[in-house]
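Notes from the 1:1 (GR / supervisor)

We went over the backlog. Supervisor wanted to see one worked example end to end before approving the batch request, so GR pasted a single chain during the call. The sequence is below; no edits were made to it. Supervisor asked that the structure be written out right there so they could see what the output format looks like.
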Amino acid sequence: MSMQILDWSALDAAGRRQALARPQLDSLGDVETLARSIIREVRKDGDAALLAFAERFDRAKLTSLAVSKAEFAAAEQQLTPRQIAAIEVAIDNVRRFHTAQLGVPLSMDVMPGVRCERLFRPIPAVGLYVPAGSAPLPSTVIMVAVPAQLAGCPERVLCTPPAADGRANAAVLVAARRCGVEQVFKAGGAQAVAAMAYGTQSVPKVDKIFGPGTALTTAAKQIVASDPAGAACDLPAGPSEVLVIADESASASFVAADLLAQAEHDVRAQSLLVTDSAPLAAAVAAEFETQRRSLSRGAILQQSAANCRILVVPDLATAVSVSNDYAPEHLIVQTRAPRELLDSILNAGSVFLGAWSPESMGDYCSGTNHVLPTYGYARAYSGLSMADFQKRMTVQELTADGLRQLGPVAETLANLEGLDAHARAVTIRIESIGRDSTGGA
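Structure output shown during the call:
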């Protein structure tokens, strides 16, 4: 299927909405119903449910869920030195960039006698979900486990689906161990989310769950996050997507390669090119077809190509406006002066500037995090960072003089709201200060 080329200026409002429409997901009601059913089974039967779901969904007959020391050791032998070195370089870069994000405690006197502080505390127990499916993702291990380790989260639990032979992916295990994760369980999808949210005989309960997944996994995360007895979740995520802004200076082969890199993820993945050059649009469409025929995930690309489009706009300012409207997970800017557009980019999960910055580098090893908001959520959400693994706790401490000076403000506001008990908690102290200062009892 050839990529559609659309003239943005010729489209009416409805046509523009359709041009930026994302692929239709499965019925949300059906997905949520299945997720709730799986969660109920795991809460009721614990490990037994996880073993049954592993056989049902992953075709794996497991005798235990935890990855053993022997399995970790065997995984090391399955990777080549070059593969292990690549994992280690990626870990180093991600660790370096995320270390720089660590928050600095804040302490200040907002006025004499009134001290306010902000302290950081790690989330005590975190669940790290790493998909496997058709493409095991050791890179995701790095993106969730490195910041969890840097934040000092004491308990780090990782779940990943088993292969049909009952083993976890070797690269996932190697990456986990190098990121300091020792608790790895062979469980996938909504059942893994349920296990980490509520705990089973083997899987510890956690406070917050991180990592991407299918629509079913995402639905499960949102369900357990709405339950006070469950676990919080990181951010909404759906099918992967990329938007490329390019002008006539861009390489058609580079742009097509970037579009295909996202389209190969999933049949619902989406790749868009927004360009002010009609010749580039035609060249990219042709190159997209040429490159697609040589790629291994042809069946997926055959379907996801239907979600891919090229929009020809009058100028780059319009291209940025279109991008901001779409709010892509990944935004690649391949123009003569890409950095000049950066200040006007408002909505994007992660931005890649220039011809030499393919999105693949952010996926694997540049140092930024690849767990990003999709499906338009980049308008309000950010990609994973150190802040997601830490709680910001505020502290205030007032002296008697500080309360005497500021207390009347609180009294006035409390009475304005009709909350006289709030006011009284201040008044009783101010009266006590007055008695003490006059020598009263």
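Supervisor's comment: The mean pLDDT is 95.
Batch request approved.
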